[in-house]
Amino acid sequence: MWLADQWKDYEVLDTSRGEKLERWGEYRLIRPDPQVIWDTPRKDPGWKHANAHYHRSRKGGGEWEFFDLPEQWQIHYGTLAFHLKPFSFKHTGLFPEQAVNWDWFSSRIRESGRPVKVLNLFAYTGGATIAAAAAGASVTHVDASKGMTTWARENAKSSGLGDAPIRWIVDDCMKFVEREGRRGNYYDGIIMDPPSYGRGPKGEIWKIEDEIHPLVKACAGILSEDPLFFLINSYTTGFAPAVLSYLLGVEVVPKFGGTVCADEVGLPVTDTGLVLPCGSSGRWEKN
């Protein structure tokens, strides 16, 4: 498992009864997690003194219960800064487990010793975008949500990357990739974090089981002549890491060689020493 264990401003303190207790900077949140199927004693005092608690509804969805939490606050990962705020579907605007992938592709970018163009699809609030930009890449950030893209720009500015070479694009990811192919725009690195289900800015429907392979194939067509990496993240239940390996193996390796590996991504749990699994990632890189 690839472990995001270099955080100082974030940690999973404990897990029990379908929930996780997390520290986000100075604030403690309780959020549901479907992986936590065990019922262990809740010894950490944070369970009784959390700043906010997201309660899952039996009818689907849920709502926040706030005790003492600001509308927005900030945490850091190295030089990167992230604005956080609780919003619907239990999220805060950041997936901390992805830091292990940020470190991986940032190393590829820095070690290349040349200008690097990166495409980040389903880019959300820009964690991967600003990590790649901080490593020295020119980044094209694509997301269907104008609000998420605005949030990402704020994160870039707070990270000292307000003037970095980042293109901010609000668009359907597949349509954008197809247009880039027609325009002859190529990238040295591609990152994608596709949802299980979603809608584009004009109502385009995305179902990962139907759309992921055509998208990976289209992306392979806009890799440069000497690409560095291709990263796929997935939180979709039932998508094993081997599925991501296969996609990269059939669409990228025949054209460029290189190696493929995939694994679960996880976060260490402070109170128990266990690891909380948080989805899967597939990585291709040039030898």
Q: What's the end-to-end separation, in Å?
A: 22 Å
Strand-and-helix sequence, N→C? EEEEEEEEHEHEHEHEEEHEHHEE
Main beta sheet: 8 strands, mixed
Give the overall shape. globular
Mean pLDDT: 95
What would you report as the Rg, rounded to the nearest angstrom? 19 Å
Q: What is the second-level CATH architecture of the largest domain?
A: 3-Layer(aba) Sandwich
Q: DSSP strand (E) fraction?
A: 25-35%
Write the CATH homologous superfamily of the largest domain: Vaccinia Virus protein VP39
Please give the count of helices.
Answer: 7
CATH class of the largest domain: Alpha Beta
Our count of domains comes out at 2
Query: Can you count the beta strands?
Result: 17
Q: What structural class should be given to the helix and strand makeup? A: alpha/beta
Unreliable stretches, pLDDT < 50, 5 or more residues? none
CATH topology of the largest domain: Rossmann fold
- State the helical fraction: 25-40%
Description:
- The chain is of the alpha/beta class and 287 residues long.
- The protein folds into two domains: 2-84, Immunoglobulin-like (Sandwich), CATH 2.60.40; 96-285, Vaccinia Virus protein VP39 (Rossmann fold).
- It is 26% helix and 33% strand.
- The protein has seven helices and 17 strands.
- The protein has an eight-stranded mixed β-sheet, sandwiched between helices. A five-stranded mixed β-sheet has the order 2-3-4-5-6, with no helix packed on it.
- The longest helix has 14 residues, at 99-112.
- The protein starts with a strand and ends with a strand.
- The model has no long low-confidence stretch (mean pLDDT 95).
